[in-house]
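[Discussion] Sanity-checking designs against the backbone

I'm trying to build intuition for which residues belong where. Below is a structure token string of 382 positions. I'd appreciate it if someone posts a full sequence so I can compare it with mine line by line.
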């Protein structure tokens, strides 16, 4: 039999009727749709190749073994971004523990909260880490980083504590870490101006200055984990307490930290005004104005008008009237400006405070009107 005839025996012929007849078998005819089912019998589909479970590996061990390539960029303070490339033939579950350090020239940062990522063979994964500077000399700008075996024993217990305190802000964590590694004073991390003015310094710690609320949160966390107040330089600053009590956002936390009961708050302001640190006694006037405005409206004009009162207290009393945020204070300030005269220091202070309060009240009234309008607007905007 010639080759062409043999090939015809192996190839089915399609009939115009829609049936398939195999050569040399005229009695066997199958519908075309049935042929696929017949052909597929006995031919098992190939199952997708299953990868083995990912192997859990520590970052440094995976890098040293050559299984993992890593590229890092960070800002020297709160973030670090990693690109992980799996060079091995097996999936890797990369673990990065809290306490892992990264360096860039003189910069050093530490991982605050543990992270991890699974990387497929030959695959790439992106990972973002929460970090904190271990040195106040860190340059805060984007730069390449490298992982290191170096450690920071002074902050290990704090990182364990922070793991169980998700409510701790990044700024509070950073402040606490610098308190442990360098024992910085409040003047190095606070945004408020020291009562005695800024002291000349060789180092710029401005990138690590935070709001008072974060400082109080940091000190509270250190106390909770067992660090003694006497071992933390920030606790010795008398201005921090009164600043924290004046600031509405930190007031509640400050009362807890300094052990001031709500029912004893008025006595706190009174005692500080009469017997507090000479450099911050007048701060109590602002606290009274903010939290006891009714008393301030009666008290502050008397302090401002009394010629025997220290000029610092008279000036503070005028400025504190604006902190009451009461419309009644506007008329009092305008009257004081007229009494003292436009050219005097007290008169200028009263005029400036009146302008500030007037602007604040106008902004507040506009905000309330806007809210009232939106509330009264029918559904659908008609």
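Best answer:
Here's mine. Compare freely.
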């Amino acid at each position: 039999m010639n080759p062409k005839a043999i090939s015809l025996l192996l190839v089915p012929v399609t009939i115009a009727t829609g049936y398939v007849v195999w050569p040399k078998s005229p009695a066997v005819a199958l519908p075309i749709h049935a042929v696929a089912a017949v052909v597929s019998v006995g031919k098992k589909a190939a199952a997708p190749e299953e990868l083995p479970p990912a192997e859990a590996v520590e970052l440094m061990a995976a890098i040293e073994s050559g299984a993992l390539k890593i590229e890092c960029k960070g800002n020297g303070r709160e973030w670090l971004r990693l690109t992980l490339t799996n060079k091995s033939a097996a999936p890797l579950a990369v673990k990065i523990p809290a306490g892992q350090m990264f360096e860039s020239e003189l910069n050093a940062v530490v991982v605050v909260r543990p992270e991890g990522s699974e990387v497929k063979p030959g695959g790439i994964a992106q990972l973002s880490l929460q970090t904190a500077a271990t040195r106040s000399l860190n340059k805060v700008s984007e730069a390449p980083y490298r992982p290191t075996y170096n450690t920071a024993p002074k902050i290990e217990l704090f990182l364990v504590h922070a793991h169980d305190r998700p409510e701790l802000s990044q700024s509070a964590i950073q402040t606490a870490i610098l308190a442990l590694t360098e024992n910085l004073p409040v003047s190095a991390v606070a945004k408020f101006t020291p009562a005695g003015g800024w002291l000349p310094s060789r180092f710029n710690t401005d990138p690590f200055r935070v709001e008072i609320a974060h400082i109080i949160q940091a000190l509270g966390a250190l106390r909770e984990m067992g660090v003694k107040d006497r071992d933390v330089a920030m606790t010795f600053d008398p201005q921090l307490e009164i600043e924290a009590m004046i600031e509405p956002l930190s007031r509640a936390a400050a009362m807890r930290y300094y052990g001031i009961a709500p029912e004893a708050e008025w006595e706190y302001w009174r005692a500080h005004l009469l017997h507090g640190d000479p450099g911050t006694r007048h701060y109590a006037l602002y606290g009274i104005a903010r939290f006891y405005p009714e008393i301030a409206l009666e008290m502050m004009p008397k302090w401002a008008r009394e010629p025997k009162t220290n000029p610092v207290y008279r000036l503070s009393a005028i400025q504190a009237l604006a902190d009451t945020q009461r419309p009644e204070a506007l008329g009092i300030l305008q009257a004081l400006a007229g009494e003292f005269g436009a050219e005097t220091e007290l008169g200028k202070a009263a005029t400036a405070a009146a302008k500030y309060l007037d602007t604040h009240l106008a902004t507040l009234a506009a905000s309330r009107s806007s809210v009232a309008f939106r509330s009264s607007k029918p559904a659908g905007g008609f």
